[in-house]
User: Fold this.
Amino acid sequence: MILVDVNVIEDVLEKRRGWKASLAVLTLARQDKVNGHISALTPPILYFLQHKPDDVARVNVMAAIRNLSIIDLTAGILAAAFAEKRLNDLEDAIQFHSAKGGGLQTLVTRNQQDFKGVEKEIAIRSPEEFLAEITKAQLPAIRK
Assistant:
């Protein structure tokens, strides 16, 4: 069970460096091969970053988050994020506490350095690292 950070989806929408690995992570979730989640904060951020006409931005965001479960942004998650001292950015704190509150094991992000200090509580992986771990974990099943 993973939380997909905003920047991973943004990679795909903007075809930024590393976008193919990010797309592979989203594809695994879309195919129900991994249980993918996002914070409720993610869709509005993605919409805001689109810089496209309203109708195009809405379609792009909804397509990008297809088959990802949304973790509600609760008062508890917000309180924990605002109180979080180990992370410098509130948005990162919300992503982290959404993942933690959702009982997720891994946060997949393009900005691992932003999550230093909480990596003992949840695995922080780049899309490439996550894909390598999934592939390695599936090898024994493939060999049988």
